[in-house]
Specification:
Blueprint (H helix, E strand, L loop, with lengths): L3 H12 L2 H8 L3 H15 L4 E4 L2 E4 L1 H29 L2 E7 L1 H8 L3 H7 L3 E7 L13 E5 L11 E15 L1 H6 L10 E2 L8 H9 L7 E2 L3 H9 L5 E4 H4 L6 E2 L8 E9 L6 H18 L7
Parallel strand pairs: 3-4, 3-5, 7-8
Antiparallel strand pairs: 1-2, 5-11, 6-9, 6-10, 6-11
């Protein structure tokens, strides 16, 4: 079937004749007639009764009109969606931490930029929290617990999922200690980060033992593990995705962390911000699964 014939059929069916259909489609009467004849020949049915006062739909024509109207509505919906995507322009600023930016967000960004080619992303990676009320960023992905961590009442906090910290090392490092992970050297955080729960978890895993390395960067911890220098406590979405690493042991402590998306209420009307919000929700659902965080 030549689907282009359906356009001519719709015009004649709605306007009742060849001449008004030709006018609407900016073509000739003979062209409209030729497409109608071709469609009837393809389907093997008569779609119109040709009368002097105009073209009247047959029963077969009325049935076809109902089906084509559904197709047209679907096409219009797709066109509107395309218009909405084209309307998403400008710059959207997202603030988050290093591990989330590098190992959750960056692998997904090509799909985002392909979906919204007119939208530019400004990614702010910093261990200091961006002030959303002062528009230092428009959205923020944070590890937090809203019951414990305060945030501006005008800021919407949306749960994105949960992940665990696990202990990782290379297979060679584990073999050197005959599988006894407790004998592995380990990496921990510097003194400025003593309040991090990961510091306490490492003390529980390696009681009374000093780390061979301290660092204030998750990337440093990952590389310490990947090079065989030390065991590192890493988010599972980092460690499980690195072929150089294995889990040294099953960590018994509750090392779950909650990931939240924050943005100011006033930005709910922003197409840019809502496009990023929806994409981040989709991304986190795909990587972290459907695990829910209690709001």
């Amino acid at each position: 079937m030549d689907w282009n014939n359906l356009k001519f059929f719709l015009a004649v069916a709605r306007l009742g004749g060849l001449t008004p259909a030709a006018t609407e489609l900016a073509t000739s009467v003979s062209t409209v007639s030729r497409h109608i004849d071709a469609l009837e020949e393809t389907l093997g049915v008569t779609l119109f009764l040709r009368r002097q006062q105009g073209y009247l739909l047959t029963d077969a024509g009325s049935a076809l009109l109902g089906h084509i109207a559904e197709v047209e509505r679907s096409i219009r919906a797709v066109e509107r969606q395309g218009d909405a995507v084209r309307d998403v322009t400008g710059v959207v600023r997202l603030a988050t931490f290093e591990s989330i930016a590098h190992y959750l967000l960056m692998p997904a960004l090509p799909a985002f930029t392909a979906r919204y080619p007119q939208l530019q992303v400004e990614l702010l990676v910093n261990r200091n929290l961006a002030d959303l009320s002062r528009r230092e960023a428009e959205l923020a992905l944070r590890i937090m617990d809203p019951k414990r961590d305060s945030h501006d009442p005008d800021t919407i906090a949306q749960p994105m999922g949960r992940f665990r910290f696990e202990l990782y090392c290379t297979p060679e490092a584990l073999a050197r200690v005959d599988g006894d992970w407790r004998q592995l050297p380990h990496v921990s955080w510097d003194s400025a980060w003593f309040r991090l729960p990961m510091v306490d978890w490492m003390k529980e895993l390696f009681p009374g033992r000093a780390p061979v390395l301290r660092g204030n960067s998750m990337q440093t911890h990952l590389l310490a593990a990947a090079t065989g220098l030390a065991a590192a406590l890493l988010p599972d979405f980092m460690g499980d995705g690195d072929a150089r690493l294995v889990r040294a042991t099953a960590v018994e402590a509750d090392t779950h962390q909650e990931l939240w998306l924050l943005y100011h209420r006033d930005l709910r009307a922003s197409a840019r911000v809502m496009a990023m919000r929806d994409f981040l929700t989709e991304m986190c659902r795909g990587v972290l699964g459907d695990s829910k965080v209690n709001a």
